Fold these 3 entries.
Entry 1:
Amino acid sequence: MAKVLVSDSVDQAGIDILSQVAQVDINTKLSPEELIQAIPDYDALMIRSGTQVTSDVIEAGNQLKIIGRAGVGVDNIDVEAATRRGIMVVNSPEGNTIAAAEHTLAMMLSLSRHIPEANQSVKEKKWERKQFIGSEVYQKTLGIVGLGKIGSHVATVARSMGMKLLAYDPFISAERAEQLGCRLVDLDIIFTEADYITLHIPRTPETENLINAETLAKMKPTTRIINCSRGGVIDEEAIAEAVEKGTIAGAALDVFSEEPLGESRLREVGSNIVLTPHLGASTEEAQTNVAVDVAEQIRDVLLGLPARSAVNIPGLNPEVVEKLRPFLQLAETLGNLVGQLAGGRIDQLNVRLQGELTDSQSQPIVIAALKGLLSPALQERVNYVNASIEAKERGIRVIETKDASVHDYSGSLRLEATGALGEHSVSGALLSDQEMRITNVDGFPINVPPNNYMLFTLHRDMPGVIGKIGSLLGGFNVNIASMQVGRKIVRGDAVMVLSIDDPLPEGVLEEITKVTGIRDAYIIKL
């Protein structure tokens, strides 16, 4: 039975799901060294924000297939190292969307109305109404940096509160921003015009210390900043100084460059700053949602099924996976087939999407084809996570083309592999019932479903060849499930495809090549 290590506290609902398919060990007190020592025994690791999954941990995880982060951010996982090892990294991109958005809005309103200070004042038996005169958010301009799921929900609610919305997100179209009531602008416009700025971005080399002394100096003295995204995107020393000096009106921070927050100038700012201990996802509903979401994905991967939200499989989001699932299987099957036909070292793979398939997202299909191509050589070491890396490291050049003019099927795929032993090509398509068909091999038209064991021959189209092959296989007790011949001209060359029930016994292929008229023969195992 598979083993899963849960190294941070997660909701019991997630544990219950994992327990259906695996032995689940919960240990939330492991030091980095202890985690490295323990991880070799596990097939999966489930974490939250506390566990640091370093390259050393990943290197030690000899059996690891998947790392699941019960939350959105994966800053605490070395995703690149996991990808190189073929370890899938999944998260829950939507599980805490509402919780994080609501906390952002709560922080904004708390900051505007001085709620933390007023609360403390009343508890100290004071009644200082004039000291806590606040600001309304109505008709104020909110600058949203990052218009993903959380930022979009903040925009929806803020718009209903009567706020004017500016947004910066280089990956969002103007049409999508307009649907949310936002005007897409450059960052400088947000810095100079917004009354409130909320950040919803990951911490990357490009976003680190995005809010700093220089950008703070561009802001209005009435600007307030809210960050419930990731620590490190704000220079904490600079923002503390800006609040103290009145460069900006205030800041509300839920995340910090180092957590828990240690000695920090932020703690010394007397007023107009609200600090919370990373509570963005801390609702009962969110904790259940993310635990269930990630546990289901870990369960599915351990059962050999795809994950919904793998962060290190380009283009494979849930919607794409569901839509392209049959074509991904087709691409992998054809890649496996052409790889075995080509044999030896592969230098180049041409992936040609044809017909209606040209309208589909191509990157996942290319990845699936590469996985199939490399599977005969690498077996279980290659998967959707590391297929592109493995191909690149082997010097395989990948060329992708689209040809909408092909109308034989509603959508078809053609792979051409060039290597040390020559060039081979295969084509395939899906029928209306989603059943796969191999439709062409090396230019010869055929129409056969893939089978676990197949025999391909290139031979002269002449009487007696097919009969001799059938008799030869019968003599070795090999049962033929189906047979088809493809040819271009009568009595020219032809391709024969035999689906057989069992692997060919040793020595049979050599006997087949001795038959008069046989030019070449290949055993294929799919």
Entry 2:
Amino acid sequence: MKDLIKDIYPNKAQYLEGETVEIVIEWNPDIKPTDVCISLVVSHLDDKYLSITKAVDNKSGNSIIEIEPLQVNGYGVDISIFDEEKIVATYSTAVDVASSHKDSPRYGFLSDFESEDVLDDEDVLSMKKLHINMVQFYDWMYRHDDLVNEEENYTDLMGKKISLNAIKNKIDLCHKNGMKAIAYGAVYAASKPFYENHKDEALYNSNMQPISFIDKFIIMNIEEKSPWHRHIINEYERAIRVLDFDGIHMDTYGYPKKAVSKLSDDNHIVNLENEFPVLINNTREQLSKVKRDVTLIFNNVGNWPVSTTSVADQDMVYIEVWDPYSTYNHIQSIIRDTRRETDKPIILAAYLKPFMDEGEEAGAYALKILTAAIISNGAYHLILGENQGVLTQGYYVDYTKISDNLFSEIRKYYDFMIRYSDLFYDKSLIDVSMTHAYGDNMEYVFEGDDFSATADSNKIWTIIRESADTKLISLINLKGNDVIWNKGKKQPKMNSAINLKIQVEKEVKDVYISSPEQAAPIKCPYNIVAGERGNILIMDINRLEMWTVIVIKLG
């Protein structure tokens, strides 16, 4: 009976407030038609929100269970199949309901737009199952300085064949599945023919040579007084008007940071960290006249220059992570430092070369640990997209496809993110990992293994965030692994005897634990004892998975 259902997922990556939620049940075509009774429970964190029990059949291929519009939250959905009164199988998924996609930007990518992709919908549908609600259309354009080519078929500057119908169909498919389509568009890259006709609009190095990138593009001057400034914004507007994109991914390359302008024969130094915000703000002003809810994302390559761009008029802070940000601690520090600059959502583009260099198994564990690290610290990760693809480097067209088995495992992590999103992305939760545990700090005491407030090799990493009424503890198991995020990992050693002692200032209302593998919260027994510094909650964890989350609710 376990294989009666082939798959279960919401019919949209994200529902907007007021929309009817639909849960799709794909029946296994190899199982003979039968009538079954299904119990569906929708939960918000550990509270049951509603339940539906109904008889259904698997004669039609798919079934859809409709749920009344839900309030803005992340929800877990647990389904039980009954044979008479006995539960014979269980399944889980998750549903996200938001007032805007900008509140929780889960970013994916598409990069295949050839004629053979016109009728291919599997890429978008697979991202829907990961709850990806924003999709970057990578290298869809004709030229970096001439984005929209209205010919049906064309070849881009990298030699990639493009079908305009494939682009249009995938934009439409994204919209139907609760996703926003974001057009890639570099802010300063021009083809060499364009440069030859606009040499005064380029940027030059201190040797007065034009600055090139991969010997294909010339870097142009984005200063407001440079004609290129309005040229590229007008190209962005064409992409929105002609193809109905929902926003622009404003890409940069991390270099140059400073350059020489030759505008009007007045050679002067251009400091790009000061010019990027002006370009972002002017892009917002112009594109908002075309599409009211337009989305702008700017690429801070190597975490630069977040201090100036994070406060510009863009919707989220997107950071492409490169060396020397090499460890999990660097991942955490990027998120923490950015949070001090802004309360906008944070997206990290951290590509995993182990999938290319070391194989899927090593890459799989690296992906799971990195996913846990990013989500536990309250950020999002651009890594998955096209054709069950995972990004291994900065040219998205060369993605690596992962197996169906790994894709199913990673879906559990993304379901987990949605189910507990109201905790992971709660801005009232303050990180106290370094101030409330270890040394003389006794607010949180971990026993039974080697623990650390920082990501240390062969230890259990503790990330502690709390508010007045919630304590959220993430335990990320690094036993048997190092802390270099872009190296392959192996399955961590499991632990079965962990004890926690946590000081509590209020009445304890609830304690539960969960992990991506178990999904639904499990009530955890605990005791309250009097200690030298006040009441202490004592609890045991019988088994530590790769990523275990503990939630303590106070009243």
Entry 3:
Amino acid sequence: MTDRLAQPATPPSVRRILTLLVAACIVPIVLVLAVLMINFYRKEEARLIDNTLNHARHISTAADREVRSTQLALQVLAGSHLLQQRDLRAFHARISAVVDKLHVDSILLIDLDGRILLSSLRPYGSPLAQLRDSPLLQRTRNTGLPGVSGIFIGPLAGQPIVTIAVPVVENGKVVMSLNATVTPATLQPLLFEQPTPDSWRAGIVDQQYRIITRSHDMAKLAGQQLPAELRQPLSRVNESMFESYTLEGRRSLFVYQRSEQTGWTSILCIPHDELTAPLRHSLFWLITLSVITLALGISCALWLARRVTRSIQALIAPALAVGQAVPLPLPRLYFREARELAQALQIAARDLQRARADSSESEQRLALAARAAHLGIWTRDLRQQHIWVSQAWSELFGFNDSTALTLEDLLARVHPADRQHVQRTLDSTLFGATRYDMEFRIELPSGCQRWISSHGSVEFDRHQRPTLVRGVSLDITSRKQAELDLQQKQKEVTHLARVAMLGELSGALAHELNQPLTAILSNAQAAQRFLGQPAPDLAEVREILNDIVTEDQRAGAIIARLRALFGKHDAQRQRISAHSLIDSVLHLISNDLIHQRLTLRTELCAETLTLEADPVQLQQVLLNLLMNACDAQSQRLEHSNIIELRSAHVGHTLQLSISDSGGGIPADALEQIFTPFYTTKARGMGLGLSICRSIVDAHGGRLWAENNGHGGATFHLRLPLAEVSQP
């Protein structure tokens, strides 16, 4: 099953490829044209629908205009003095004279009980019917506003009509209703003010969706109510469109607009087949032309494929003859590329013959080079577990040329300490490794050891299974011995580096311990002077001894902190107040300042700032910087005797600045002064500022120096403040 799935499918023919190529070129073009046509159709359809909606709006506007003009005329008549005087005969004559001018079918005068008092359709005094149920009359009586009714069967004419009513008001009260009736035939011209195709249907329906007038079959359909499937979409919004079937049963697109004034709805119906006819016509011609074009293209492709196939098949025999080193006859070919291929086959035949000769010579050269470099070449067939080795390889591993080697024989020669590593590396070629490089020791039959460097690469079959491993082996015993000698030298150099580091640490201890030891000596001498007095002040001596103990403890703490600084473990940190840190340093250096007749001026931040740091290390930093400032002052004969110490809250850090008025620092040495063993002092060791910067860096801060504009230098120390603990 696996072999069957792994076999490649039959490649397609040139004829099939060209046919698919033609289809691939033509079909996308056809699809693009179809999309463009459909898009154009959609745009035209939208434009037509928009124009139709405007037409429906125009019909509604025309109907509203007719209703408003009729209402205005009726309002003028309703205000006639003839009605005020109840001269109905004269009023009948007047409405009969103006009824034709108002484009209405009749004018009625109705009292509030529904009795028709006058009608322009009947002579004055003729008996007239009484309206039994007139919603328009009730609405006019209740609101006192003009109105328009839906379509209904008139009691006098006996045909569908609509009524336009205005109230007749006396003394602020509605006493009668003056109405004008309009038949569907009178309203029908409104549908034709803008021309439409004869296949379209236009109409106006009232508030109850009964047909008031229609462009077709008006006499038969006037007054009928639309079916429910049309009433439901018409009732949703005032204007829109939907698809349904007309009363004649034709599928159409309904476009409608409802008047806010009358409540009537103007409807235009566009037959669906007229909407899609242009698209169907265009698609028909597109498909026809596409089929014709595709047929012509495939015919040309088949003809061209036949010519290409003949040319390719004619080259099969010359291609088979390439490896036989025989003259190649050139067949009849139809294409320039095929002729170029035939010439290339001729050239390939000559090159193959030349390559065979060169390959034989290269193999001989390779054998000579391998022999000269003492390279052992080997191959291992992973399927048959057969191992082939060159003569140089056999000599390298101490095997006889006639020995049939196995993998076990090879592993037996490997040093026991390296055997497992070699076995694991060789096994990796069976599980996907593409190459390997390893170094191992072998034990020769003579008892001596030899270092071997082996490099191999794996070949795979078409199923990506390893089949063959090729490689070379090289004697690297001399190189390995040289590496061992080099490692010994490196150990000696490392030992010397440790000795040098101990010397540097000793210098740093001497430099840092000088201050507390000097203080201990001064206090001890002072204690001797006090004790030499006839009546020594024991309290003063006790205070001096306490200072000696304090300085001794500080010296011990300095040694411990310096070890921590140069070691790999973290310093002992705690939360300390910036003010207490500065006070402790000022207390330690006060005697030196007095002795050198120097004044320390402080400008400290009023805020209480807290640091998380090693207090002893920061004391040493400040002491070193202050002592350096004292030394800078003493190097000038004429100088100020003031040293300034300032603290400030900068962002989320504490900045300490120590300024002197000495000779300053050369511009090119502002960074160099922090380098170990660099000093400008006659007796300096060049470790103080280096240790200070190391301490500051370990605390996540920054230490730098700059020259003052008025002389001297300022050292700035910036340290991060402790994080505020959340309650």
